[in-house]
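Retro notes - structure team

What went well: the batch runner handled both jobs without manual restarts.
What didn't: labels got mixed up in the shared folder, which is why I'm recording both outputs here explicitly, each with its sequence directly above its C-alpha cells.

Job 1
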Amino acid sequence: MSVSNLLDIASTGLNAQQMALNVAGENVTNVNTAGYSRQSVVFDSVQSTTTHGFPLGNGVLVAAIQRNYDSFLQSQMMAANSASGNATTSNSAMGMVQPLFSDLTASGLGTSLQSFFNSWQDLAANAGGIPERQVVLSSAQQLVTDFNNISNNLTDVKDSMDTSLKGVVTDINDQLQQIAKLNGTIKQAEISGATANELRDQRDLLLRQLSGNVGVDTQEQPDGTFNVSLKNGELLVTGTTAGKLMLQPQALPPNYSDIVAIPPGTGAATTVTGTIGGPNNSLGKLGATIQMRDVTVNSYLATLDQLASTVATEVNNVFTTGYDLNGVTGGSLFSPAPPATVTAANLSLSISNPSDIAAADTAPATGGTGNNVIGLKIAALYDAKLTLPGGSMTMAEFYDSLVGKVGVDAQASQRAETSSTGTLNQMNNLRESNSGVSLDEELSNLVKYQKAYQGAAKLVNVANDMLDAVLGLVR
C-alpha cells in the first residue's frame, strides 16, 4: 500500500466521523423537537483491493443515515390519537348535558314533576280554594318551564357541536395541504439521493395530528409519498395533491352542516356525515362531534319529548272530563292540543285563571264547587303504571331511566377519556423510548466520534511523516 493510499484511507475516516459528529449534534439540538426521530449513522468499509496478493481495505464510508422509526407503532399511535380525540370531545359535550338532569338540589325536572302532582293532591283537600288552585297553576308552569329549558339547552348543545365543526374542518384541511406539500418535498429529495428523515418525521407528526381530528388510513407509495383516505375509503391526499372537507347546510331546519369530502384532483364530492359519525366510525374530534349532535343528544331529546307528551296527554285526558268553577267542561290544561305533537320544547299551559282549573266531575250548580274527584284522579296519575318505551312504568320511573342513561353515558365518556389518554401517553412513551433522543447516549457518541476523528487525523500525520521520509531519501 502506498503512502497516498494511506492518506486516502485517513481522508475517508475524517469525512465519515465528521458526518457522524454532525448527526449526533443534530440529535442533541433536536432533543425537544416535537415528532423528531433519533438518527443513526451506518458505517461500512470501502471495497477492498488486492495489493501484492493481499486484500487491503480502502477506508470507511457512511452507508446510510437511518431514523429510528417503527411503522407499526406509528399506526398504533394514529389509532390512539383518534380514540383520544373522540373521547375528549364526547366527554366535553357530556359535561354540558349531565347538569341538565341533576336533581341534587331542590330544583330540577324530577322535582317539578312530583310537585305538580302533589299540588293536585293538596287541591283535593279544598277543591274550591283559589290559593290551592294558584299553586296548581304555578307548579304546572314550573313543570312546563323545566321541560322547555332542558329541551332548549339540549338544542344549544347540538348547536354548539355544529358550530365547532368549522374549526375542526379548517384544521383538517390545513393538515391535508401540509401533508401533500411534504409528499412533494420528500419525493424530490429522495429522487436526488438525499436523506429526507426529518421531513418524514414532520409528515408522521401531521398524520398523528390529523388522526386526532378524524379517523384516516394511510398507504405509502413507491415514490415515498403517502395516500391518505377516510376510513370508508374516500381519498383525501394523493401524492402532492390534497382534497378537502367542506360544510354544506342541510335542506331541512335547523340546517345543520353535512360533511362533504372533495377528492384530490377530479372526482365527485361525497357526503360522508353518516360514515364519519356513525356508531362504528365515530373517530377523532369530527366523528365525536357528529355523533353527539346527530345521535346521542337526539336520543335524550326523544325521551324527553316522550315524557312531555305523556304528561300532557294523560293529564288532559282526565282534565277534559272535569268542570271548572264556572261550570265549563272539556278544556285542556296543557297545549298544544291534538293533532299537534307535544314536545318538551313546545309544551305550554292552556289556562292562566285559577277558576278555570277543572277539579270536579260535576257542574257547580249540582254540587261541583267543592268536588275533588278529577283532582284526585290527576294526582293518582303520578303513581299509575303506563305503557312507555322500555316497559310498564310510572312517569317518574321513566324520567329516572333517562337520568340514569345520561349518568351512565357521562361516566362512560369519562372512563373513555381517561383510558384513551392513558393509552396515548403509553404510546408516546414507547415512541420516545424507541425513537426519542437520549442525551446521555448522544453525548457518549460525540466523544466516540471525536476520538475516531482524532485517530484519522493522527493517521494523516503518520502518512505525512512517511512521505517526508521518502522525499528525504530522494534529496
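Job 2
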Amino acid sequence: MANCNKLFLDFNQNLNVLSTKKTKLSTSKKELRRKITDHFKEHHPDYKPKFFTQGSQKLGTVIRIHDDTCDLDDGVYFLCKPDVTATTLQRWVYEAVKDHTSEPAQWRKKCIRVTYKADYHIDLPVYYMLEDEDHPHLAVKNEGWEDSDPKEFITWFRKQRDAKGQLVRLVKYLKSWCDWCAHKMPSGLCMTVLAERNFVANGRDDCALRALLKAIRSDLKREWKCTMPTTPQDDLLSKYSDELKRNFFDALDEFIEDADEAVDDEKNQLSASKLWRHHLGSRFPDGLDEDVDAKEAKLRASAVLINSGRAATTAAVGITTHGHGVPNQSHRFDGGRRFHPLARQGKDWFAVFHREKQLVERHYPAFRCQLKRNALSCRGEVSSPGGEGTYRIKIDYAPGRPPKVFVLNPGIEYRHHALTHFYPADNSLCLYYPGDLAWSDKHHLYDKTIPWLAEWLVFYELYQITGRWEGPAVEHYQHS
C-alpha cells in the first residue's frame, strides 16, 4: 500500500491561491467596497452598506480550480428594514458595480458577480438584518427575502475543525474532485457539509480521503439528502435530478475503486499517484517510481534506533546499533532563522581544525577534509538511508561560527524550514537546537555533527513519504 500522504500534503499546497492573486483579490474587494459605499452615499443616502467576507475564503477551503481561477464572496449588509423590494436593493448594488471591470457584472439570482478578466470573480450577495433579529435575510432576485446566515455557518465549521487541519484539507480535495469531473457535481458548500458529518481523522490523508468517500457513499445511499447545519437548514441536494444523482454515484464509485487500489494494492508510489491524479486533477503530484512501503520500513527501523537512544553511526555514515559505530548523542533538530555565534572562542583555530580533520577522516573514510585560510572544509558522499543513490555533503567550519552542513546533490526540498530543519538564509541544515547546546571549539564534528547528519537524512527521507518529521525536534508552527 504505497504511502501517498506527502503527495497529498503537497497537493494541498498546490491547490492554494497564489499570493499574487490573493493580493489582487484583496485590492479588488476594497475597491468594490469603496465603489458601493460611494454609490449609496450619493444615490441612496438612507442605506449605509456594511461588508463581511464569507464563504470558502473564511473557511480556509478555497482552491484554484482547473482553469486557475478562484472566487471570493463578500456580503453586502444593510442594518435596517428596506422600504424597497429585495430585487430593487440587489439592482442598486448592481448599478454601483456594473461597469467596474471590462466584463459587465452579472446580476444572478442570489448575488451580483463581478468578473476580472477570467482570472477571478467576486460575488456580492445582498442582505438586511435588524438588531433584534437572530439571522440576516438574503435578497433573492424576483422572489424576495430568505433567511441565510453565512456567519453562523463559519462559526459552526470552525468548531468542527480538527487541530491538524485534516478536515479542511479533505474538503479541498473533494472540491478539486468535483471541479475535475466532466459533469455537474454537488456544490462546494454541500461537499463541506458532507465532509464534516462523515469525517474520521487518520494519520494519512490518502487513507482519510478513501474512508471519507466510502462514508459519504453510505450516507447518501441511506438518504439522498444534505441538510445545512445552520440557517436556513435547507436540503442542499433537493434540486438534483435523477440523472445528476446517477452521475454522482458513478463518479464516486469509480473514485472509491481506484482509491482502494492505490491504498491496498499498489506498492509503487508513481503508479498509485496516477490513480489519484485521474480523479483529483493535474495538480496532484507524481510519486516516486519505487516501492515506497519497503523504503519506509527500512527508514523506520533506523528511526526506531534513533528515537530510542540506541543508534550509532557507521564509518559509511549510516545508522546502526550501539557497539558498531560512533554512539549518537541526544539532541533536537531545529529550523532556525539566524545563525548563533560560538559561546566560547578558540585561541588556536588552526589546531582546532587540524584536530577535527584527523577525527573526521579517522572515523569516516567517505569524507576528505581540507584546511584552507584558517577554516576547515569537509566533503563526502553518503549513501541514502532508504537505499536510493547518494548525497554529496559539504561541511564548512569557520572561526567563531558553528559548523555549517550542506546537501549539495541531489536537490532537496527547501519549502518549510520548520518542517525539514534548515536555516533558510543559506539552506544549511540545522542539526541541533542552540538553546540545548552552545557549540564551542571543544565540541567535535565526528561525534555530533556527522551522526546528526545521518539522522537528518533518515528523517528527511521519511518526511518525503509521510509529510511528517518523525525525529526529535523543537516544535514550530507548521503549515496545513
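One thing worth noting from job 2: The domain at 5-154 is CATH 3.30.460.90 (Beta Polymerase; domain 2).
We'll revisit the folder naming next retro.
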